Each structure stands twice: as C-alpha cells, then as structure tokens.
From TrEMBL:
Domain TSCPD residues, every copy: 747-847
Protein name: Vitamin B12-dependent ribonucleotide reductase
Pfam families, per database record: Ribonuc_red_2_N, Ribonuc_red_lgC, TSCPD
Uppermost EC category: oxidoreductase
Cofactor: adenosylcob(III)alamin
Biased composition (Low complexity): 1-14
Organism encoding this protein: Streptacidiphilus alkalitolerans
Transmembrane segments: none
Gene3D superfamilies: 3.20.70.20
Amino acid sequence: MTDTTSGTRAAKGGAAKGGKPSGSKAGAGLRVERIYTTPGVHPYDEVSWERRDVVMTNWRDGSVNFEQRGVEFPDFWSINSTNIVTSKYFRGALGTEQREWSLKQIIDRVVLTYRAAGEKNGYFASPADAEIFEHELTHALLHQVFSFNSPVWFNVGTTQPQQVSACFILSVDDSMDSILDWYKEEGMIFKGGSGAGLNLSRIRSSKELLSSGGNASGPVSFMRGADASAGTIKSGGATRRAAKMVVLDVDHPDVEAFIETKVKEEEKIRALRDAGFDMDLGGDDITSVQYQNANNSVRVNDEFMQAVENGTDFGLRSRMSGEVIETVDAKSLFRKMAEAAWACADPGIQYDTIINQWHTCPESGRINASNPCSEYMHLDNSSCNLASLNLMKFLREDDTFDAVTFAKVVELVITAMDISICFADFPTEKIGDTTRAYRQLGIGYANLGALLMATGHAYDSDGGRALAGAISSLMTGTAYKRGAELAGIVGPYDGYARNAEPHQRVMRQHADANAAAPRGDDLDNPIWAAATETWQDVLRLGAKNGFRNAQASVLAPTGTIGLMMDCDTTGVEPDLALVKFKKLVGGGSMQIVNGTVPRALRRLGYQSEQIEAVVAHIADHGNVVDAPGLKTEHYSIFDCAMGERVISAMGHVRMMAAIQPWISGAISKTVNMPEKATVEEIEEIYFEAWKLGVKALAIYRDNCKVGQPLSAKTKNDGKAEAKPSAPAVVQKVVEYRPVRKRLPKGRPGITTSFTVGGAEGYMTANSYPDDGLGEVFLKMSKQGSTLAGMMDAFSIAVSVGMQYGVPLETYVSKFTNMRFEPAGLTDDPDVRMAQSIVDYIFRRLALDFLPFETRSALGIHSVDERQRHLETGSYEPSDDVDVDVEGLSQSAPLATAKPQAVPSAPAPAAVQPLPTPAVHNSTELLELQQGINSDAPLCFSCGTKMRRAGSCYLCEGCGSTSGCS
C-alpha cells in the first residue's frame, strides 16, 4: 500500500515525531495521516489471538444468564472486557451461524461501514487515504485506545436501523397532542435502549386556567403518566430501568411541587419497605411508587441565583403571558431544593445562563434541557453520538503525556463520528432532521482518575486540575479544528450560516479561557502550549471554512465502554478504591492493589523496597494511612471516591469547574457526599458550582435512597403476621451440631522457627492425610512465662476449632493485623514486619496452607509475588494458572508451600465467587474492607451490586448501566 501521507510517518506503535497533527485538504478530500499502523500490515496481524469461553452467572441464584464458548479475542484483553463485549455487542442469535464470535467481526462491521460512508460522501482524497483511515480506526479500537458509544456497537453494520446516538433531547408544548407525542417519542427511544431528556416548562401550571375555564393539570401531573409509560416499556424492551431526564425552569409556578415529587415518593418507599414490601430497584412492589424512572433537575438562571445571594424575592411566571403570578423568597425556594436533594438526591440543578452563554446556535433556539446523564445539552429534538478516549493509552513510559498522538487520535475519531451522521437512522423524523442539520458530536475521555494518580497528582489539587484542563482544552480544540477542516471539504453544518457569529464567539470564549487558565508543572505545560496553538488554528480555519459540527465534546459516564476499554476509572471520576476486584482466566476472582499505585510512587521518587512496603500495606488495609515510609503530604494523591480517605465534595466540584470551559456540552458527574452531610453543605455546593461556572450538578448523599431492603422481613412474612387467626403450622425442628474430626496418630507436619520483635518461638502445623490443616502448636523460648502459657492455650483453642470445621481463612481474616507486643521485624523474608506474634503466625499459615486466590483476597502475598507486582503490576501467578490483570496475560508458578490443584486446561470463563465472605465486584470488595454498606441497586442482569458512574449506575459484572451509555 502506498503511503500518501504528507509529513513524517509515525513509527510502528507510535506517533509522528515533531510537528503537530495535520488534516490538510488535498483536492476534494481529506489526507489521512498514519498514527500507529505500518503500510502493508493489517492491525489484526500484529497481535496474538486466543479462544475463550464466556459463561456469565447470576450471583443471586447461580443460574447461567449468558454462555458463548470459543470466542476470539486478543490475548491482552481482560476477562471482564471479553465478557462484556461478547454478551453486549456480538450480534446474531446465540447458537446460530449468524452469531458473531470474534472481536474482528464486530470491529470490521463498524469500521468498514464508516469507511464506505466516508468514501461515498467525499471525505477522503484517495482510496489510499480511506484505507489508512480504516486501519488506524481498527488499530485504535483493537488496542482499546478509544470506543464508540454502545448504540454504534449494537446497530452499525447490521440489518436493523443504524442508530448511532445514545443521547436525545425531546420537546413538549402546551397541548394535548404534543404531550401524547412526547409519550410516544420517549417510548420509541426507550424501546431502542437509549434515554431522553426534556423540559416541561412550556406546559402551563396547575395555577393557571385552561381555555375552557377549568384549572390546568400542570406538568407534574403529566410526569406521572410518562413515568408509568417508561416503567412499562423498559420491562418489555430492555432489562434495565428507563433513562430519562425531566427539567423544569425555576420560575415555573409548579416548581415547588416538582421539587417535592420524589421526596414524598421516597417516604412512601420507606414506609412500604418497613411494612415488608419488596422496594428494591426492580423489586416486585416498586412499581406502585411514582416518578422513579427519571432524574429530575431544576433549571436556574442568574436572576434567581443573584436573588438567593442577595436574599430577595423571585417571581414565578405564567406560561401563557410571561407575567409574574406569584412571588416567593428565593432563599426559601433554594433551601427546598437542597432539602429535597438531601432526602432523595433529586432534583439536580442546571445553570441556564452559563449553559446558553456557551451555546453555538442561539439563533436556532435556546438550550432548554439535557439528556438523562446531563452531559449533552443542545437544541430540542436533537441527538448526539459519543465516543471516549482512554487517557492512560497516551501516558508514556517516562510518565509524560503524548499530546501529539492524543491530538492525532482526536482528529481520527471526530472524523469517524461525523461520517456516522451520513448513514445514521433516528427514532423520530424531527430528531433526524435536527441532527443532520447541526451534526452534534460528543467526543470525551475516560480514565482521568487513573491518569492523575499515575502521574503523582491528587484529584483535588491545582496540579491535577491543570492537567485535566489542558487535556480537555486540547481535545475540544482539536475536534473543532478538524471540524473546520471538514467544513472546507464537505461543507459546514446546515445551520451554520444562521449561527456563524455566535458560533465563532463561543470559539473565542474557549480560546480566551485557554489563554487565562492557570498552568501547573512540566507535565501539563506542553499540553497547554499545543492547545493554545490549536485554538488559534480553530479561529483561523473557522473564519475561513465555518464548522462541520455545532457541538464537539461532552464528558459522559463511559460505563459499559469504559469496561470494554479496561479503564480503571470512568469519565471524570476518581478511582473508586485502591484495591481492585479482578476476574481470572478459567474462572474465579481475586483482589489486587491498583496498578497505578506503584507507578505513582516511582514518579514521586520512592525506592523499590519502599514501594513494596506501601503496596503491602494497601493490600492489608485498603488505604495508605500509616503506610511505612510514605510521606503524609503524598496521602492525598491516593484519595479515592470511597474508603478511608475520601475526596471532598468541593474537590469534585472544583475538578468539574477546571474542565468545563473546554467542554462543548456538560459533564456527567454526581458529587458524592457522606451520610452525615447537612442541607447547608448541599446549599453551599450548589451555590459554589454556580460561582465556578459549572453547567449542571447532581449530589448524592450516602444512604439517602432505598437501594435494597434493609429489613430481613419479606413481603410474605408481613402478610403472615397480619393474619394472627391463621392456624399455626407445627414444624419439626432438627438440630445440627458440628462433629469433631480428630487427626490420626501419625500426621504430616511442618515446624517453623520464627522471631518477632526479638521474641523467638517455634510453630508446628500438622495436617490431615487427605490435606488440610488440623492443628497448630506454639512454643515460645521462655517456658513457664505468661506469654508461653497464653500461646499454649491459644494454639489448643485454634486446633480444636479447626477440627470442628472452622476454615483456616476465617482465622486468618480475624487474627491478621492484630496489634500488641512483641511486634516488629521478623526473620521471615515473606513476612518482614508483624504487628504481633498472632499476626505473624496466621500470615505464615496462610502462605503455607491457603491457595493463592484465597490468601490474595486477604492481601497476603509472598516476597516473590510482591516483586512480580512491582515489575508487572500483578501479583498473579502464571505458569500453573492463566490470569489476566491490567490487560496483560501473565504466567508464573504459585508461591505457596502447598500449591493448590489447578486444572491443566482452562476452565470456562465463568465468574466464581471468592472464598467466604464472597464478593463479586469492586463495590462489594470495598464494603467488605471498610465495613460499609453501599445503597447502590443490584444489577438486573447478574445480581451484583452496581456502582456510580457519572449520574448513572454501572455493573462491573456484566456491563449493564442504569443510564444511556
């Protein structure tokens, strides 16, 4: 293949050296530059492929809810990403020849469709450029550099309508015909698995009259019907709750009723739950409660916020005449919003003035609403297709950010996204017309939290915000620059001529914000420099050619596609926790310390032994507090969304504010607050977000909603209690007692000498002939001392317990980390430090007698395993057990004295529970470590506990989301 690219071609696997990305017009089409690929070599031929079995189970009842064997994936794709792509994105009926079975098939299905549409619509200068485009897009998807949103994978290249958008905004007017159209249009979108948002403020309030003279129903009443419709359609079309956003302007006369809708329903949920009804999300009885299928937001403007600031009154206006029909105290209304959010997390808040100040198309209409996750904001009856870049793919080995390659990939992806509008189908004619006329796109990114930690930046820090802002500025600037280049080739969007001046004004606002942004350090300064140059190109090319897209970027939750790309963090979120839950090849799961931790420590200047000690501490405790040798000023770098050290609510808001000036739309993010947070703190968050220029915000106070039943009493139990006259059923009670299994006269054993903090001792551990520890004897050096006597008694008690069936892992989980003297250094290389003799004893027993997965789940590793973690980011063994961590398949022998039996051939990739207590994802693992109880809902598909991703919930087990990603 002939390389037609101008400039220096990138080396294999890297970017072009020097210069900046170019997309110069050549003749009637775009010249496409190579980024990763090599002429004459297809991307598929550069990776190793392997066959895997995907078997996914429901944790609640153990049933298999998905099974497909023999699927083909690259060997560096994790088990989790393999499971999600196979179950979510492979098309065709299971068990038929039409069923897709290889990642190659779905990438080809999408990429070849994009190439064909690009050639048909005149995007490329030559067939050679089209081929480069195809290969580069294939390479980037294959290597998890970016991903399109889910509807692309669902629909593109199939025989069904090729819907590519995940985000929709509808509109409704003050007429029954329009309201019924709203119900129908929303239902069609839900049926296709997407979500929609709309503003109900055009509907007259319940305080206004109809033309017939009666009182109007008001928007809150019509919300009830739409909510019931959404709850019904989602059960027939998708196995998740419908995703929708309902917005009401703050000057609507029914705004107080709107604010209180979900508060009252939450009280009803709690009352019904306490009465024994199943009020879990998805439970049998939750459908009796209203308004549960939508996120609600109040749209406030500067006039209202200034009235709150000044303590003055604010007027609620008639929908028909615009006259003030009621005056309220602004502070009191603002307080009611905060109280409602405190009670049930709704409503969120959207800042209307700042949203419309950054609107590129005001001549075509205002921005009135958003999609359900609140990141897409543009014209009514429009849609947006999304794609997100994996930021960790641009972090070089020397911990610098590859801005040149990043910009090149943005150009590639934004070109593909624009091409998709040429062939896309839409759920309604109005949405199709608006989208084709304005061509709204939503490029974004994921893994920001992991990138910041890996580079030694605290999420809530000036340096972290500077790096995030620089990347956001370069991304959006590059997207608009490519849009201006495309406008010179295939023309600007249809609505551009009408909106040329405001669109260029918004571009100048972006450029001015870039120039005024505070710089941080040597890591972000080069990115800012590249962004500055890019924005100058945007202004120059935009003035000449116009722009191809009315909108370029948003920051979405990246739920399912984040898991597809093996991202540690979603969207703009920080890391959930420092200890991760990982699935293993052949089944099973384990916990490992986040691989970005050692990388961050190396960047901060810590030596190998220090890093090993910190990592071991995190494995034991789940946090860095009191980690040996770690400076306290570095603690904040490892702060997470949950756990011992939690990022403050204002830390989240400040990050959003640092990014917002370079995002065309908004940011999907929920600010998590502790259960003890006050209404006043929520008021402060809402107010400061307005001051800082954030476009939209939602808060979530822990345990403010009923996520699952907290009472052990079932609905049936409740009914039985309500009928005391019913005859009692006499049941025979059978009592089961444990039976002691004594060891035979001759038994195998291991005697270990040890020293802990200067105290010497001997431990003899004897096993049953058929394997399994049966007794432990402990002898301290000074016979007759109190310590020796207590150790004798303690070992007898433990031994008897083992013979009655108490598992060793139970003792290990209870007695490790117990602190008392003597404590300190030991003479055991696998356990260098012990907090007590008991702590040492059970760590040594775990290493000698527990299988790798079991003790790894308890954070206990040998010196060889810890060394392997420093080198590869993985504790996992790899000669006897195939495992996959951080996208790399590893092989090494088990470092245990008593190796576990391992099947020679890989077992089906079913997810098996960890040893008791069982956990199934990172949320449940964190609950176990921290002793907390998350009130996130359970996944409809697989039964595991979901976790927050932006404004939605994400299931790490199967990739299901409660939103529109």
